[in-house]
Design a protein that fits this description.
single chain, mainly alpha
Length: about 55
Amino acid sequence: MQFSWLVYAACLVGLSMAQCGKQCANAGDCLIWPCGTCNPDTHQCEQTLPPAN
């Protein structure tokens, strides 16, 4: 049982990381953390960074 959870977790991580650099038209194309932000200049999914203050 434990092994299948590890595989499941690894798949989720792989899917979320695959979002990074994906082409996007708007924010709706980049739904998965950590790359859930669509850069309007490059039209690529990028990491959502906390505002620096």
